[in-house]
Each structure stands twice: as structure tokens, then as C-alpha cells.
Amino acid sequence: MSNRLKGFIAIWWSFWIAAAYLNTSLSISNLATALVTFSMVLFLVGWSLSENLKFKKLPKEKYFYLNVEIILLYIILIQIVMSIFSLTYSLNNPGALRDIAYSNPVEIYKNQYILQIYTLLVYPIGLYGIASINFFSSTTYKNGLILLFFIFDTLITLGRLSIYIFFIYILINAIIINKKLIYKKIAFLFIIANIIMYILFNYRYTNELNISLENYIEYLETSVFNYHIIGFKIFDEFINGNLIFNSESLLTFGFYEYIVSKFYSIFIPTVSNWAKFGEVLQGFVIQIEGGTYNALSTIFLPYYIDFGIIGPPAFLFIFGSIIGFGINRTGNVTPLGILILILVITGMLQSTTIGQLLYIPLILILFGIRLR
Asked: Quick check: 349 and 227 in contact, CB under 8 A?
């Protein structure tokens, strides 16, 4: 199971690194390519080492277990209410939902904090709960809740990332179970998910369901392939000094600062360091054949800005070690390990930090809480 997952990670990242490096429109430097490649090698090395090291047996701990089904059910009820507001606004204002949702959420939800609470608390708890379930060895009821969770999250913002994360989640689960019939189901689900993302793409940018083969091919290039390689170019721009961000604090832990700033900004207007970093990414535009892109990055960028060239390989080694340690102790990939895998596999699309990975699991572990 472990070797299959590591093999998939190696092939997946090798493909996208090569695709970015060989794209003449991007002109990725040798240094950026080498740093990304070395970081991913250390991710796999950390995983292998911690998985095979011998540790002293830890005393058996008592945990308080929460029912994942109940948690997901309550979250889905929240999502249903939010999606009603989102769809109502979208029908009256075609194409404007995503911009307004983050710039002026009051216009949609009648409250400026609802979307923030959902993004920072409700969604991460739901995703961590889902990570504790294997889609292919679970009950039909749980699988139904998982599907509803991702469907309603997609409806809330009309974004495609949630569908993409769902596909990565079931792919990881399939590799763990490793049965031929499951891979056939994966292929079917991939086709369905791809069609849904294509329809969303058309509606989001044209405000109409203009479905054709020509549009679909354009969609594959602009919204699938290019999105997986643009982040490397932005990472390269920081390495070459063409893009600079004067960080006021560690971006590695910037997500914690971002959460805290949301609370004290109620009393004192402030902009977090993490938000300023997002503005820099939003403002840098890359044009290549097939479209115009901004705001994309990679999992390596925050660690590079904080610690230079040692940052990305060091943190990827740590992430791999966490997965391997979990397998070493339990014999399987832990829910935290599943989350890390999801974020590493999607790491060429977005900047993800240790805060986003660990804050929900750390809080639950601190209070002796497990999900099942």
C-alpha cells in the first residue's frame, strides 16, 4: 500500500515538473526545477525512513471519539443553507458570485463572517472527518454524506477545486484498497467530475451552458493542464528575484496569524501578513498560450520565502515523515496522513502551509478527541 502511494506521488510530480520545465512559454529555470525535484525526493525519503524506523511502543491512550456521520450531517445542513443563498444570488447576478463572495460576502449571506467561519472552521473539520473514512470500504450512507459535502461546497462558490479534491481523495483511497473494480469506478467518477467541472467552467465565464467539443478542448488546456504548471513559474519568479514579498512574519505559520487577525480585526482594522501575500499573488499576471493566470502558486513558496532554498526540502521531508510515522504506528495511512497527501498532490496549484495542514487535527489531539 505504502509503496503504491509513493510510486503514484513520484509519477504524478515527475510528470508536472517535466511539463512545466519543457514548456517554452514559461522558461522555468534549472534552479527552480532542481529545488522542486529535490524537495519531492526528500518527501519520499522522509516517508520511507520514518515508516521503517523502530520506535518504542507508546502507552495506550484513551480517546474521546466523535461520530463522523453526525458531524458531516450538521456540516451538510450548514452547506445547504449557504448554497441556497449562493445560488439565489448567482441566478440574479450571473458570473458575479465568486468575486462578491470574498470581497463583499454581506451582499450574499447578509453577514460578513459566515463565509469566513465556514472556510476557516466548518470546511476543515468536514475534510478531516472525511479523511478518516475510506470511500471504498465504508457504508453507502457515509459515502452519500461525503458526496453531498463536496457537491454543496462546490455550489457555495461555483468553484472547481472541491471536485478536484474529491477526485484526489477517492484516488488515494483506491490506491490503498488496490482492487481492479475500484479503478473502473474511479475512471467513471473521473469522467463525471470532469464533465461537471467543464459545465461550471463554461457557466462561470460565459454565464450560459455553451457546451461543444471545441470549448471542451479549450477547457482542458486552460483550466486543467495550464493550471498545473503555472504555479512553477510564479515560484521561479520569486527564486529569480523578479517577485519579492517582504514578509512581516513567518508565512509558514501565516495561516494561524490569519485566523487570529480575523478575530481582532473586529475591533482594530488590520490586514494579516498572509492576506498581503495573497494580494501579491493576485497582482502578478502570467500570460501564456491559452489564457491569462494569476494567484496560483505551489506548496513550496511559503517555505522558500521564510527559509530560502533549505525551506521547501526541509518541510517536505517533515510532511513525508509524518505520513510514514503514522503508517509505522497504525499500519495504515492516518487521517492526518490523508490530508497531507491531498495537499501535497494538489501542491502545484496552491500555497499550503503547516497551519492549514495541522490546526484542526492538533486541536482535536490536544483535547484527546478522535473521529470515527
From this structure: yes
Per-residue pLDDT tens digits for 150-179: 989 988 877 778 888 888 898 898 888 877
Alpha helices (H) in 159-285, listed in sequence order: 161-177, 180-206, 213-219, 230-239, 254-264, 273-283
- Indicate the residue type of 140: T
Closest residue by Cα to residue 354 from 308, 288, 300: 300
Residue 370 Ramachandran class (φ > 0 left, ψ -120 to 50 alpha, else beta): beta
CA-wise closest residue to 44 among 10, 91, 72: 10
**Cα separation, 186 vs 274, whole angstroms:** 36
| Grid coordinates given for 285 | 499576471
Question: Going by C-beta distance under 8 Å and a sequence separation of 6 or more, which residues neighbour residue 102?
Answer: 115
Q: Which amino acid, residue 185? A: K
H or E element that contains 293: strand 291-293
What is the rounded CA–CA span in Å between residue 83 and residue 78? 9
Q: Is residue 286 within 8 Å of residue 294, measured between CB atoms?
A: yes
Read off the pLDDT band of 50 (50, 70, 90).
Answer: very high
Residue 287 bridge partners (DSSP): 292
Burial class (CB in 10 A: 0-12, 13-18, 19+), 330: exposed
Q: Are the C-beta atoms of residues 270 and 261 closer than 8 Å to each other?
A: yes
Q: Is the Cβ–Cβ distance between 273 and 245 less than 8 Å?
A: no
pLDDT surpasses 90 at 15: yes
